[in-house]
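Re: the request from the purification team.
They wanted to know what the chain is likely to look like in 3D before they choose a buffer screen. I agreed to run a prediction and write the result into the notebook, where they can find it.
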Amino acid sequence: MSLLHLDEGNFKKEVLESELPVLVDFWAPWCGPCRMIAPVLEEVTREYQGRIKVGKVNIDENSGVASRYAVMSIPTIMFFNQGKVVDQVVGVLSKSDLKNRIEEAFR
C-alpha cells in the first residue's frame, strides 16, 4: 500500500470510515519541513502496511479539510482511530519518534 492522497472527496471514506487506524499528514509543496518528513512517512507506510493507513492532505488544494481540523501550522500529523483524532503533532519528527507516537496512539 502506498501513501494515500487525501482530499475533500475521499477523506470521509479513507479516514473517518476506515477499519484501520489512519495517520494523516497535513502539508504543502512549498513547506520545507514537510519535504523533510516525506521520506520518513514513505518508510512508515511500508513498515506498517496492513496495520495502519498513511495519507497526505495538501492544505493548499484542500483547505476545507485543514480548517475542519484547525490546522494552523504544517506539517501537522494527526492520528485517527475509528474516525476520531486520538493524537496530533506539529513539526518534523525523527522516524523513531514517529514510530513511538504511532505505537502510543494506535495501541
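For the purification team: The mean pLDDT is 95.
Please add any questions underneath this entry.
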